[in-house]
Amino acid sequence: MSTRPATELFSEWATKNKDEGMERGHAASVKAMLDLALPRVSTPYSAVDVGCGNGWVCRALESGDACLRAVGVDGSKAMIEKAKTLGDGEFHLALLPDWKPTTPFDFLHSMEFLYYLHDPAAMLKILHDEWLNEAGVMVAGVDHYLENEDSHGWPEALTCAHDNAE
Ligand SMILES: C[S@@+](CC[C@H](N)C(=O)[O-])C[C@H]1O[C@@H](n2cnc3c(N)ncnc32)[C@H](O)[C@@H]1O
User: Fold this and answer.
1) CB-based contacts of 37: which residues, under 8 Å, 6+ apart?
2) What is the pLDDT of residues 48-75, one digit of tens each?
3) Which residue among 95, 110, 135, 141 is least crowded, i.e. fewest CB within 10 A of its CB?
4) Distance 43 CA to ligand 1 centre (A)
């Protein structure tokens, strides 16, 4: 099986507007995650979406009065370009874990991103130690895991490297 960086695959998705289907597919889970996490965040708050795709969660957060600033970070050039055309939010093109914000955030969101990394546990520690304020809150969604047998074929189906170092 040939593999390529996940960020390259997702740039292709953005070019083909497949990010819109992904947004629709993730919307219900993200709503449940936000409903769970946001009541625990002190307001007003700053937010970051790690692996933000086309930036739809940043736009949703910024539409609320309590959100001062929502920043999106993603390693896909086409996703970030698209995010910048869809609103006037702050988006950074960055291949993680090799980037960090200059100021930490009150709220960190991440949906279907962590398992693309070589070492998700190391990234979680970096996010906890360097991306979040002392009383910061993080919520992350992952649907690719051992007990979800339906997800085991995803790497092959997507023909992308789940280890971005490959
Ligand atoms: C399944 S998509 C989810 C996008 C978005 N969170 C959503 O729910 O629509 C995974 C995203 O993670 C990004 N990604 C994967 N590996 C990355 C890395 N090492 N650094 C930064 N972004 C990465 C991809 O470019 C892609 O946009």
Assistant:
1) 107, 109, 137, 138, 139
2) 999 999 999 999 999 999 999 999 999 9
3) 135
4) 27
